[in-house]
Amino acid sequence: MSQAAESTGGPAISARGRTRSFGKQVAVDHVDLDIPKAQIYGFLGPNGSGKSTTIRMLCGLLRPSSGECVVLGHSVPRDAERLRQKIGYMTQRFSLWEDLTVEENLDFMARIFGLSREQRIARMSQRLSEYRLEELRSQRAGTLSGGQKQRLALAAATLHEPQLLLLDEPTSAVDPQSRRDFWESLFELVARGTTILVSTHYMDEAERCHGLAILDRGRLVGEGSPRQLMDSIEATVIEIEVADIRGARKALDNQPFVRSVAQLGTRLHALLDRSLSDPEVRVKALLKEKGIEGTVERVRASLEDVFVAATGFTSDRGADKGSAPTPALPRDAGEGARH
Amino acid sequence: MLFRIRAIATKEVRQLRRDRLTFGMIVGIPLIQMLLFGYAINFDVRGLSAGVVDEAHTSTSRALIADVVATGVLKITHHARSVGELQSLMRGGEISVGLYIPADFERRRIERDRPVAQLLVDGSEPTIEGIARGFAAMPLPGRDGIYQAATSIFEVRTEYNPEKRTAVQVVPALIGVILSMTMMMITPVAIVRERERGNLELLITTPASSFELMAGKLLPYVFIGLIQTTLVLVLGVLLFDVPINGSLVALYVAALLFIAATLALGLLASTIAQTQMQAFQMAFFVLLPSILLSGFVFPFEGMPPVARAIAQALPLTHFIELVRGIVLRGSTLAELRLPAFKLLAFLGVVFALVTLRFHKRLD
Asked: Do B8 and A104 touch (CB under 8 A)?
């Protein structure tokens, strides 16, 4: 492992053609990734899209069926053991020991990573205060709340100051305030040079990432910064405000150029084919035919729109053709463990 | 490397201390089994109530009765005047055994052509009959020449356990049974539980190697096994006067070998089982034949060839041979090299399988 190669500006992770199948199911299908250092990079995708499987392959927990990958200068899975000391991994499920106290859990992780006595004492007290765990230090981990558990897990994963943090849906069991705090902590870590790879299905979280990969059924269907993704969306977004929402929706539903319609309170949010010219006029005319009056305006695409455009279309079309079922992962390797 | 093994072992002990039930079982299993097997299961009944008819009334006949009482197998509860009276006492269930010394006792003793006395046995109870018959064949110690060739042609002499106490046979073997239970049940469950709870996924992303993981997890159980061994031995000596004729060092070496073999087996089970329940069932799958076929309860020699072949594949069979040899016969490990070698071979094979099966990966 050459220290020089790591400290240069090369990507933290670069993967080419990573594929992993479980039996006939392809969980991750030829995913290419280049993840720069000292950034938060997000995996956005619905359940079963291959987020966990990709993360597990990146840290050597699963062997890829094909493809190659270099993480922090180490080829994975061949060099996975050497990589361990440099990465921190936070599993989807709380995986510290519930029958040990907060302090005992941290102590164990510090020892496993081979921290010296002085380092152990210093880092533990630092993490306990940074993640507001001081008062909980002799409490059993099993009795902590979701947010506290997650702070503990993050503290444990960062004890050995890893260069790369892999977080698999870290905020799925956490309240909004804890999520905000958690993301603040992540930005602190990034400021200190850590690269963070996080998987999520929350849009607000995805929006906070520097870079984003949208995964759908094992394939990479979109990549870029949230802004880039929103700007380059393959759809026109309009919002409709009418009295007869249900009627308007009915009118839109069967139109070939309408890709998706969602109701937001008293408004309708619709994604239309980008090729459609004068979308506001067309929609207004369409509604008028049905005797519905209201305002129609073009709005900026949100990340959710990007997500729907990237995943929703393909899944609709896929369903029409009756192909490609959502891959179900084996119990011990997939997201099923949590559900 | 050692610091990681220590870290894992420390964690394991901490968890064990919190798990009151498991912790209790580690001490409770030996204790309860000890009392159960030591007191309740008694293959030779002692203190059978007996009636005596002594028509000879000589000093030798009284000595014979005294000797019979001294064995502790019979307890004289009735003195009768005739054989008929003995029979009616037996019909009434008041005695299980009757001792009849005829008037010509002295002449029979000198002529040596007929048995000197008669033992009436209640045949309705199979165990009592067998035991009483065995008793009839046992020489009465201390009076050489008095009854020689009087009762039977073959003289039976029970070596190493002259009083034929079951506890003496059972207690050493019980060490093996208890160790099997701990190593086969608690250990795999402890490993599979980590898989079930997701701890394993975290553990394998740490720098700890497979070997460190396993060693750290198993080490506490080796100590627990040694504690259990000691507990059974101490209880055996205190409660049942089990003589420890062989060397303690040899005994602990044998125990360590057996602990290693069963731990390896437990580990193998844990690499196959996905849930704690499965681990438990697998443990039972091995435990039951172990207890039945290893010679712990039924004599190994009396088994059909198939059962014997199965027994040869069970580590408990060899350990029981070792431990009975060391504790009761005072044998050395050199004398017991055959079972020791078989146990070692078992350990080797199972360990090789474990190494093949355990990966530090999820797939």
From this structure: no
Measure the CA–CA gap between B48 and B77, rounded to whole angstroms: 9
Reported ipTM exceeds the 0.90 cut = no
- Whether pTM > 0.95 for this model: the answer is no
**Chain B (19-48) residues lying within 8 Å, Cβ to Cβ, of chain A:** 19
Chain B, nearest residue to A59 by Cα: B205
How much is the pLDDT for B124? 67
Tell me what pLDDT residue B164 has: 60
pLDDT in tens, B271-280: 888 888 898 8
Taking 3-state DSSP, the helix, strand and coil percentages for chain B, each rounded to the nearest 5, stand at: 65, 5, 30
Residue in chain B closest to A140 (alpha carbons) equals B18
Nearest residue in chain B measured CA to CA from A110: B7
CB B207 to CB A94 under 8 A?
A: no
Which of chain A's residues have a Cβ under 8 Å away from the Cβ of B19?
99
Provide, for chain A, the percentages of residues in helix, strand and coil under a 3-state DSSP scheme, each rounded to the nearest 5: 40, 25, 35
In the three-class reduction of DSSP (H, G, I as helix; E, B as strand; rest coil), residue A310 is classed as helix
Q: Which of A202-211, A305-314, B124-133 has the highest mean pLDDT?
A: A202-211
- Cα within 13 Å of Cα(A248), Cβ side: 25
- Looking at domain A9-229, its CATH architecture is 3-Layer(aba) Sandwich (3.40)
At the topology level of CATH, where does B48-137 sit? D-Maltodextrin-Binding Protein; domain 2 (3.40.190)
Q: Which residue has the higher pLDDT, B356 or A225?
A: A225
* Of the partner residues B15, B204, B208, the one whose CB lies closest to the CB of residue A100: B15
Q: Return mean pLDDT, chain B.
A: 81
> Could you give the CA distance from residue B90 to residue B51 in angstroms, rounded to a whole number?
9
Would the CB atoms of B204 and A332 count as touching at under 8 Å? no
Which of B 208-237 lie inside 8 A of A, CB atoms?
Answer: 208-209
